[in-house]
Amino acid sequence: MMPRTMHPRWAVAVVLLVIIHLSNGFISPHIKHSTGFDATSSDASSSSSNIIVLDHLNINHEQGTHDSLLNFYVDTLGMTIDGRKLENVEKKKGTVWVNGGATQFHLSEGKPDPQVVDGRIILAVESEDALRKIQKNLNTDSNILHCPYGNTFVLDVASPDPRGQQTGGEISSTINGIQAVELNVKTEDDLAGIARFYETTFQVTTSQTKDPTTLHVPFGPHQSLNFKVGPILNDDYLDGTGPHISLYVKDLEQVWGRASHLNYVNPRFKRQAHTLEEAKDQCMFRILHIVDPQTSRPIMRLEHEIRSPTEADGSPYKSYPFNNN
């Protein structure tokens, strides 16, 4: 028996249904920005990855500008003040922590200058209404905005990390967290070495889109650290005084074994680790440079604060955002 052929009218109907399905499921007219990285992909959620979450980004604000700082992060974006630094807010002096979803900004006071990240910070926003509210506050219809010190933020409507929230203050009703941090690098040749660094040190699977100038490094199932060829204009700070990222890893000892030769002790902070035992005791250690493991070439300076979610005795580390889960 010859197989039946589909009537042309039905064929058109099927095509239309497929298009509608794709539009409803995968293409949203309300999404204002795409990082180019699918955080739900198998690469991002791979069980072999050692990275759990990008916990915070630390950048300096200009000394004596607490009012401008809080106006942007709290009044405009709707992030919330972490109570552990409330005293500094009341004094209008020192470091401020602000929360959004599972992530934070640690906003240290410059001596006296602020810091500007060479790249962009992508924030997950709760809803279209929340996005429009922020835009109205800034009298703009763009989803790209700048803080008072020149850092570039991109707002993307996206869900919060379902694993939990920062617990140091009220939950933000507008900002669901840091979705991605995009950093500029000098050349395309740097991207391969950066990929080798993260794949070797943290056992993640990096990826590139069709754009050869961009590299995506998954930081857990819902975030990424992106590297893109672009201008480097703000790299004249002293070691240990620049921006840094904080991340939690599943196995601190395992990461130490791969990165101990890069260990960096920052005199700015009380918690310091010179050895593995001290790293276990402090639930963290730091590295200062991204180094290509194949050539031993330092590619770029980006301080990483690498944290453990548990104390040496196995109890939960107090600042881990997912302790309630």
TrEMBL record:
Q: Which domain of life is it from?
A: Eukaryota
Q: What are the boundaries of the region Disordered?
A: 306-325
- According to the record, the signal peptide region is 1-25
| Classification via InterPro entries | Glyas_Bleomycin-R_OHBP_Dase (IPR029068)
Keyword check for Metal-binding, yes or no.
no
Instruction: List the keywords (alphabetical).
Output: Signal
* Keyword field contains Signal: yes
Q: Which PANTHER family match?
A: BLR6907 PROTEIN, VOC DOMAIN-CONTAINING PROTEIN
Name by which UniProt lists this protein: Uncharacterized protein
